[in-house]
Amino acid sequence: MTYKLLGVGTNAKTVKGDGSEYLTAILYMTPYKVMVDGKLFNSCSMAAIAQCIEACLYTAGRGQMSNVQTARQRKAEWFYRDRESFMQQLYQDVKKFEAYCVKRGITPVIRLNGTTDIRWELIKNTDGLCIMEAFPNVQFYDYTKISNRKVSHIPNYHLTWSYSGANADYAAQMQHALDKGMNVAVVFRKEYNLKTWRGVKVTDGDKDDLRFLDPKRHIVALYAKGKAKKDTTGFVQEIA
Asked: Smallest Cα–Cα separation from 226: which of 54, 32, 11, 8?
């Protein structure tokens, strides 16, 4: 099954969770800043303050391949150049993916921000619904660095806030995210056997990518991949 925008089976970690119960599709586009027709757009508004640009998962796995980066660039350009036709195609992809999963008795799972941090809840269709609301039987989830996103009214959209210690003001938002009931994804230099981190219970985020199944108000421990292995900004955490 192929799609113009969504990718299925292209992420090593999501594949771990794919099976008889769930199947995950992901939308990948160029992260952070992208130039389209002489205008500069930013798909990750908090990337500069969190200093995760160099360590972005955009460089991990297949993301290192030039043809993959070119495809993601084309999608980003389409998104910013012709939002209406882009969303029409995305709706077609989601509908097709949902039908494929339903036919096999599998829950369709979609991550729209594979390498971006777009507020999809603000993009409405002609019925005034965002894409998650338009497909209530699809489980959507994302990682985000925007701790105040208002999505509590969308039961099938799960957000995990992404921590960075590179900026004190940004790092201080962790408690706000936890107070809202969100989990906090933390990237560690290497795999540690952690039960708690800064007084918060830890769950292993690398066993699969089904974040909506994680227990609430937990640290989701992830381990550095790609260029993140050499990150020194404070985005990647060390354990003494």
From this structure: 54
In whole angstroms, give the CA distance from residue 57 to residue 43.
Answer: 14
Residues 6+ apart with CB under 8 A from 118: 43, 112
pLDDT per residue as tens digits for the range 33-85: 788 888 888 888 877 676 665 655 444 445 455 677 788 899 999 999 999 99
> CA nearest 186: which of 156, 169, 206, 216?
206
Structural domain spans, the chain: 6-230
Quickly tell me which residue has 């550095």 as its tokens.
224
Contacts of 198 by beta carbon, 8 Å cutoff, 6+ apart: 219
The residues that bridge with 170 in the sheet, in sequence order, are: none
Q: How far apart are CA 62 and CA 14, in angstroms?
A: 14
